[in-house]
Write a structure and sequence with these properties.
The protein is α+β, with helices and mostly antiparallel strands and 238 residues long. The protein folds into 2 domains: 82 residues, Trypsin-like serine proteases (Thrombin, subunit H); 103 residues, Trypsin-like serine proteases (Thrombin, subunit H). The protein contains 4 helices and 12 strands; from the N terminus they run ααβββαβββββββββα. The strands form 2 sheets. Strands 1-2-3-6-5-4 form a 6-stranded antiparallel beta barrel. A 6-stranded antiparallel β-barrel has the order 7-8-9-12-11-10. The longest helix is centred in the N-terminal third of the chain and has 23 residues.
Length: 238
Amino acid sequence: KTRLLLGVVTTVAAIVAVALVLRFVPQRRSDPLAPMAAEVRRTVQAGTVWIRAAMAEGESEGSGFVSKSGYVFTNAHVVEGARSVRVVFDTGTPLVRSVAARLVRVGHPGEADDVALLAVPTGSVKPLRLTDAGKLTEGTPLAAFGFPLGSTVSTSEHGPQISIRSGTVTALRRDNAGRVSWVESDILAEVGNSGGPVVTHQGEVVGLATMLVGPNLRTARIVPANYLRRFGPQAVAP
């Protein structure tokens, strides 16, 4: 019996030891962005910009992206009523540069046309391609590029570093004509992501990260790229 008990104790001890190892050894997790080629990721990062809008009181911050040479899309609620707007390229790096922008057209904050088009010298930045949101399906992997919380979390004199959040398409909200009004996603977006590009793993822009909805604010709504084409056709690369 002593041996049996000792054996049981030893076995239990071994089980506890294994449990502790499993608990404290970091587990490998698959990278949801692994299918996105490094070159694609770099292109989207370079084409994503930080928006700083000077208001009558304080400053509004958000994200945006270069859609064509000389043009940047963002959300209307980021820049509406701004006294001046600056677009910051390569923020968070020693190559950071801030350029004054001109408002070309501003939609309605909080609505399906929560879009703003800015004219700004974009230099050699490669424009991001738009895709047809109507061809997406639920479960399609997505990635949101932008600057959540902006300057409040910046740890560099060069400004905030870009953040990438992953998720999937959870729903396509269509109007009576069958056109996609909103793309919904489970991407964990935050204040500061507004206006940033949400892309497929091929780097094609699905639309603009715009707002969070639902009782727990866990559903991200994205203005579809199809609407961006209608809003500013002159600003979309062929």
